[in-house]
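The protein record reproduced below.
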Amino acid sequence: MIVMPTMAVFLQQLCNALLLGSLFALISVGYTMVYGILRLINFAHCDIFMMAMYIAYYSIAVYFVPWYISFIIVIVATALLGIIVEKVAYAPLRKQNAPKISMLISAIGVSYFLENFATVIFSGRPKTFPQIKFFVEGLKIGPVNTLRLCIYVPVITAVIMVILLLLINHTKSGMAMRAISKDLDTSKLMGINVNKTISFTFGVGSAIAAVGSILWGLKYNQITPTLGIMPGFKCFIAAVIGGIGNVKGAVIGGLMLGFIEIMAVTFIPSLTGYKDVFSFVLLIIILLYKPNGILGEKIADKV
């Protein structure tokens, strides 16, 4: 049954949708950057996201590092983790010209390894992400009662996306990334250090995931070793909807997914328990009618 919310409730949910969509956008960028270069779905990305949250938790709550220093540590450590994953799990297969399916299986293996590693090291008992007053203080805007986080997250997302687009379109590293995405073999002949560029891409994508992880933890407090699974699926869906391989598309897909998920349960509260289903239904619809995504380009598969 469709319910028409009051204006105050609608505006409140609009803020929530913008917050959730911005979080999805940040995390989905990592998927889309790696796919854009390697044509690889990096399923370990969601577990790198999870590891970043644990690093933040221990840095702030256990070792009492000031949050602004802790966030820098988390971003750097997560970027290094992403580079290590690429060097250990993907680079050797790439050097052997292994088929894409081998790299995909390796990605799934890394994902399970990180989940089990986190369970052994951090235990499976849920932990509570530390709440930082600067971000989670209440904020009243007209009839809407919300958190500062609802303002900060979209702004941070927008700033990061602008910086990322400048990096991709106006730097030598970005030019190398774009060249490899078009033709990896020709890029080697042109003198581009392919391995270095790919590692750099993994590092940047993981660093952005770390930012998303911190903001996610401030909004949704519970941390477990399997935390990244559902956000990972949804952010992968967001990347596919926007056109996987396209950074702008990942942002559009993330925002669209956030708005659909929140607004669907706003107008049809009886479906609240099924809110995760909307993401997968939308994915099926997009694949049926626009298989390359909203901004995706048709790319022929290489045999």
